[in-house]
Amino acid sequence: MVFLFSVNFPERRMVKKALQSFFGIGPNVSARLLAKHHLHDTCRVGELANTQILEINATLTEMKIENDLRRQVLGNIARLRDTGTYRGKRHAMGLPVRGQRTKNQTITAWKLNKIDRKL
Amino acid sequence: MSLSICTGCLARLCITQRAPSIPSRTFSTTNPQAGSPTSRKIKSTKAPYRSSLTFNRSRRPRVVPKLPMIGERKALRKRIVISNTNALEVQGLQDLNVKNMVDETQIGQMLALNEELLDHLRDVRAFKPTQNWNMFRKPSTLMRRESVELGRAILDVSAGRAEERPRTVRRIIAGERGTGKSLMLLQAMSMAFLNDWVVINVPEGQEYTIAHSAYAPMSINSERQLSPDQTAQTASKQSQGSQEMIYSQPTLTAELLQRISKSNENVLKRIPLAHEYKFGDYEPKNLYSLAVVGVEETSLSWKVWQTLWEELTSPSERRRPPVLVAIDGIDHWMTLSKYRSADYKPIHAHQLAPIRHFVEVLFNQNGAGQLANGGIVLAATTGSNAPSVPAFELLMKQLDARTRGLKMGDDGFPMPQPYKTVDQRVLNLLEGSAELNVQGLKGLEKDVEARGLLEYFARSGVFREVVSERTVAEKWSLAGGGVIGELARFGSRLRV
After folding, report:
1. Looking at the structure, do residues A53 and A23 belong to the same domain, yes or no?
2. CATH number at residue A52
3. Nearest residue, CB atoms, B217 vs list A31, A38, A40
4. Could you list the residue range(s) of the whole structural domain that residue A23 is in?
5. pLDDT digits (tens, 9 = 90+) for B383-431
6. Are the C-beta atoms of residues B483 and B175 closer than 8 Å to each other?
7. A45 and A82 fall within a common domain
8. Which of A116, B3, B99, B375 could disulfide-link to B323, CB 3.0 to 4.6 Å?
9. Residues of A in contact with B212 (CB under 8 A)
10. How many domains are contained in chain B?
11. ipTM, interface predicted TM-score of the complex
12. In this predicted model, what pLDDT tens digit does every residue of B333-352 receive, in sequence order?
């Protein structure tokens, strides 16, 4: 088991997938991270040397991911509401924000658009 | 207790009455004790009080399918079976040896590979899973005109070394899918092993470019691996417009060294080192122990490979054996690889150190292709898995034109289209590669080679037709003019 950004990963897990498990890292960012550290596409977590693990951890610490990113997104929504913008109001009301029609169902908006949105 | 009948006369005994103690059954092979009708409990269909009548999925035991072990499926897919004991033994089948590999009378004959040779070929990964070795008793190859010619080249180089006139043959084997390019490499390797050469094989060029194994940046001058801080510094220098970055591939190099050390063990153990080397705690004494250092210490593999190559190809007082370099699937080395640089730009295949090395040897760039002890550098293109590389296609056309006697600037010499960008790295290979020629493989000759192959199939019991002029002509035409891969299909399945 290997710790990456204080999460424990089994050794068979691909580094690409392990990185993608963090909030804020998708396929693109993950591929760029691999390239930055000269890791090949099919590299497994168990193959990483200790220095490489430290380097990856250092890079991840500098990035805005996980709770920092969640806080930022929630902060953005709260700011919109506090300044009284239309988008802020729509968030608060749980209605579509970007001009979608509301004649019929707006299930995604009910689920997602909240001030304290679950991320 | 009174009896129901009179014991004196037995008058009321009815013999037709069924005896109650012997239950009659219909005919069955089942053990009668197993299914006693009286012992079977009748399950009540009534639902228990206040219980759910619905079918509860969660209460069923969960059936977890047993997955195969890690790597098991791939091992099965890549499995190579070299002989089949169910196949008929072909009487009078000769083994390939030093004499008959150059004998023109053997053209159209199948020659078997002996046990010792098989071990070497297996270690060097000369066989491919797509070839149908598993249908025959003993693995054998067809001697074509090109094979005999190749055998002659090998003997020439051996003779040249003996007379201290080292010669290097460079050749690209090209041809359509299934024309026997990989098998030509296999034959070359077999002949080289028979002549005690050192065989270096790259069984699949694609492995080096698909980004499935480790890579690391190296400094350009010393070509040694860098620490991360140094990498950052060198990368910043690169961005200022200096030389390009070279990347090592330690795992693949270690695998290459393993193939070399395992398959050439006897030859390499006999050759002492010309200089003394020290790699960490290792102090190798001969070429074999040198190669083993690279296998055991993957981080040292590139350095070890460079030393080994220098030892094999530099002039020395003690005679070294000639070298055969066989590369399959060279097309993949002529384009961008799947690896990415630190700033997420694709890395060209020629920036990868092992590829760069072999390409320089093949195309004789920067004097890298001069083998002091002689040798052959053979590369085969791939027919079934060819990437689209316009620059390499053009280069092949140019090489072909050059073999026909045309020079750059002549009419009819293929040139890149002026309004298209073509990979200059690939086109620049033409310079310096004067001795390189292209051998185009086509279908087999109908009357000698194709007939010999079909006769072998028939004698092995997989081709159940009379091999006559008519059948040979029919199968030759069906196989697109004797394409050996297509002809081999007649020997890949038993037709009843």
Report:
1. yes
2. 1.10.8.50
3. A38
4. 2-63
5. 999 999 999 999 999 999 998 889 888 999 999 999 999 999 999 999 8
6. no
7. no
8. B375
9. 40-42
10. 1
11. 0.88
12. 999 999 999 999 999 999 99
